[in-house]
Amino acid sequence: MIFGADEMNIRRSARARRNEDMACSEVRGGYVGLRGIEEEWGLLMRAALDGDSAAYRRLLASLTPHLRTVTRRNCARIGLDRGEAEDIVQEVLLAIHLKRHTWDVDRPFGPWIMTIARNKLIDARRRRGNRLTLPIDDLADIVTAEGSDDATDRGDLDCLLGGLGERQRDLVRSLSVEGRSVQETAERLKMSEGAVRVALHRAIKALAALYRGSGDEN
Amino acid sequence: MRTEDLINALVADLTVSKASFRRILVGGMALGSVIAAVEFLFWIGVRPDIGDAMETARFLFKFVVTLCLAATAARLLSRLATPGVSTGFWAWAWLAAPMLLMVAVAAELIVTPETAWWSRLVGTNARFCLMLIPFLSIGPLACILAALRQGAPTRPGLTGAVAGLVASGIAATLYASHCTDDSPLFVATWYSLAIGLVAVVGYVIGSRVLRW
Lengths: 218, 212
Fold this sequence. Notes:
The complex is a heterodimer of chains A (218) and B (212).
Chain A: H1 5-49, H2 53-78, H3 82-98, H4 109-128, H5 156-161, H6 166-175, H7 182-189, H8 193-213
Helix pairs in contact in A: 1-2, 1-4, 2-3, 3-4, 3-8, 6-8, 7-8
Chain B: H1 3-12, H2 21-44, H3 50-53, H4 57-80, H5 90-93, H6 96-111, H7 114-122, H8 126-148, H9 156-176, H10 184-209
Helix pairs in contact in B: 2-8, 2-9, 4-6, 4-9, 6-10, 7-10, 8-9, 8-10, 9-10
């Protein structure tokens, strides 16, 4: 009643696909492997929530190839290309970051991450559904989690960065592409570290909002 | 920007302590309740004969229904806004309040003569009920929606509607101590209308502001 029939279909097929994903993982790594990695992510996330940035980096780096595989498989099915899949991966990472405190540390991590990813995939489909893209063949479905180096985003995030102010863009570039620390960035831009942190957080929220809004024009 | 670069930015933005979403939501509900209670005490107030009313089952039953609605809807709300948690039992538990009310309506129809039904249903305060419950809901609804923006509801409209149920459950609990119409026939008609209205408003606002 609340959803359109289309959305219901996506939800249902997303669930079916998740089961497939689980089944594949069982074949590949065994059930214990799947549980193991979920537990490891949970531990890393718990440490991250306590402020451990090394654990947080490991978590995001470890999640990314898996998200990429799942996203590409889904994108192939709904006729989006790989470049868009990478943009969706980035969008999912933004969502994980901004919503990380909604994970209840007493609950398993798997359902949480799958719900976040699924929600972003549904969004992406709704947003880009009208855009004409060539469907790629089934081979793309067999992309494995190991293929993590061939990330080719279409640069949606760069376009969105253009939507930020010049100073904010400079700051984000310094912390991301140039890989500088908050301290170095603060010195370079002649800001206090606190101001850099506040500006970065605003920029990240603005990016997520721009992603969300970029579909409304389509 | 490569994904690895984005991860750099996200790691740089990691802050140490941020309250868990559950705590934020409980805080939002508590703050909303306080706002509604203050508004109620300043502008509306309890009915003058509250001492006598406390001894009647019909009066007390109003609180059973409204508190039941607020509590069950609050549990459902927290689940709707937390990713990876199924609503399960709580998807249906909020129906306990309307079902209780239906049982009370049936009892009222049995114990009162048919000629009194209409006047009890119409009551004397219907207009106030329809205005004051939505009015008292504004504060709680605003606080709860603000808290929910920190959450991650996968169904923004539905979540907004349930936020409306919680807010109007709080508002109706306060209003019930002012209202002199205690018949379940009155409550089932006018309280339900007022609460339904707030839920619809919650749905409309929620589907706009709760996307993430």
